[in-house]
Amino acid sequence: MPGCKKNGFTLVEALVAITILILGVLGPLSVATRGITDGLIAKDEITATQLAQEGVELVRTKIASDYKADKNSFTSWLSGLDACISSAPCKVEVKNNFYFPCTPLPSQGCSIRYRSADGIYVEYNSTDLSQFGVVFNRTIQITKPSVVSPMTTTFGDPEVEVTVVVSWLNKTQLRSVNLSNYIYNPW
């Protein structure tokens, strides 16, 4: 019909408009999804760093409390930490500050998980319903210096290196935080 103007869009115009709309929505949506994922990874890394620092502080507290309790004793300044000085790593029972040998990943021997009942990270137990969140694997290793120091006293080595490794599984990727610190003989 000549002289008659048709209203509406052609099929090509509609497809171009839909494509532009989809690109306009998917771009910010993918950025938001990536931001949420990165935030969750950062949360786990911060938690792992805090757990590693806690591991070092627990060893330091054990040494300090033993020193304070028995300043005049001739026992080793590392007593109670024997499980951590061997070639295998150890784990710590936080409430009582006891140290036990453990087997690191892929075993669950050194695994800890947040328990809401008392608000601390405890040994992982799959049947404990008050535990939730990411399962972390924390190992503590104490090494004596390889160089014989002239400062070695009757109370043992002047220092030890405490290394704490906290690892966890983020989807399919194994991630870890390593923290080392030197602790000096208080005697």
Question: How would you sum up this structure, described in words?
Answer:
The chain is 34% helix and 29% strand. The protein has 187 residues and is α+β, with helices and mostly antiparallel strands. The chain has one domain (11-184). The strands form 2 sheets. It has a 5-stranded antiparallel beta sheet with strand order 4-3-5-6-7, covered by helices on one side. Strand 1 (90-93) and strand 2 (98-101) form a beta hairpin. It is elongated and about 110 Å long. 18% of the residues are buried.
Please name the defining characteristics of this protein.
single chain, 187 residues, alpha+beta, two-stranded antiparallel sheet, 2 helices, 7 strands
Mean pLDDT across the residues is 81
Sheet with the most strands: spatial strand order: 4-3-5-6-7
The multimeric state of the shown protein is: single chain
Relative strand content? 25-35%
Uncertain segments are none
In total, how many domains does the architecture comprise? 1
Number of β-strand runs: 7
Largest sheet: 5 strands, antiparallel
Distance between the termini: 106 Å
Q: What level of helicity do the residues show?
A: 25-40%
Summing up helix and strand content along with how strands pair, one would put the structural category as alpha+beta
Topology pattern, helix = H, strand = E: HHEEEEEEE
State the shape: elongated
Number of helices: 2
Q: How large, in whole angstroms, is the Cα Rg?
A: 28 Å
Map the helices and strands.
Blueprint: H1 11-69, H2 82-85, E1 90-93, E2 98-101, E3 111-115, E4 120-123, E5 131-143, E6 159-170, E7 173-184
Antiparallel strand pairs: 1-2, 3-4, 3-5, 5-6, 6-7
